[in-house]
Design a protein that fits this description.
Elements lengths: L1 H4 L3 E4 L3 H6 L6 E2 L5 H12 L4 E3 L7 H12 L6 E2 L3 H7 L9
Parallel strand pairs: 1-2, 1-3, 3-4
Amino acid sequence: KSLWEEGALFIDPRPLFSYAEGHIPGAFQCSPAEIEWKIEEIRRRVQGRKVIICCEDALCSQGKEMVELLKKEGMEGVRIFKGGFEEWREAGYPEEGGW
């Protein structure tokens, strides 16, 4: 949570319907398949901020894929929030979205 409080950019690679059901406040939704047309928006949002990938849970493969894709785009130091949104929600941290 401290990285979120420090203003890190959280990128959520889950499908849009999962993102809509709930996500970390301010997280930017971008699946690996969308990286090509969303990379400029990501670069605009980063501007010196730390980048954290937050998938569903520790088993989510999309997080690792996003890290690799962002590295190929020249972004260094991208990290994964290992427990994912599931851990965030269980800890009772703030969230946006939901039905």
